[in-house]
Structure formats: C-alpha cells, structure tokens
C-alpha cells in the first residue's frame, strides 16, 4: 500500500538525506536506482531502494517518488516484496516505515 505525505522542503536535499540515512540503516540496504527530472517546472525524483531481510530470507524493495512544484513537496512511498510464511513480520512495512519516520521528522504529514 502506498503512503503519500506532503511537506515543504527542497526535493533534492530531501532525496540526498533519504539516500544517506537509508543506506546507513543496514548493511544490506542500498539505493539501486535514482533519476531526476523537471516536468512542467516541477522537480521529480525517483529513488528505488533494496534491502535483504535475513529473518525472512527475502529481498524487499522500496520506491520513493518525490515531486516538488515550488509550493509543496509530495512524497509517495511504496514498499513491496518481503517474505512469506513462518517468521515474516512484515519486512516491507518495516522498510516503508523507515522512510515515513524520516519524512515525519522533516515535518511531512
């Protein structure tokens, strides 16, 4: 399930902060794709992260789409993957919450 949060900050600074914090959050967490564009005057940044969760023996991905039109910054956070069966505590939700917590610290709601 995607989470959408709004705030007021520079998209590029936010993307750099997310990348720095998420990659430091675990030895297996990394940004595997980053793309920046300008569309109709808005900054659009797409980040894709992956993390391996040993307890579920699974790879989880998280996509973060940041759109900054100069007035508001909107972040869409989508995590997917994760393990199934015994021991799966919702690794995709856990990964998604890492980003949501950072955004909330930045004043996003």
Name some characteristics of this structure:
five-stranded antiparallel beta sheet; 109 residues; TATA-Binding Protein; 2 helices
CATH topology: TATA-Binding Protein
- At CATH's second level, what is the architecture? 2-Layer Sandwich
- Strand tally is 5
Radius of gyration: 14 Å
Judged by helices, strands and strand pairing, the structural class is: alpha+beta
CATH class: Alpha Beta
Low-confidence stretches: none
Range of helix content: 25-40%
- How many alpha or pi helices? 2
Quick rundown:
The chain has 109 residues and is an alpha+beta fold.
What does the model show?
This protein has one domain (3-104): 2-Layer Sandwich (TATA-Binding Protein). It is an alpha+beta fold and 109 residues long. It has a five-stranded antiparallel β-sheet with strand order 1-5-4-3-2, covered by helices on one side. The protein is built from two helices and five strands. 26% of the residues are buried.
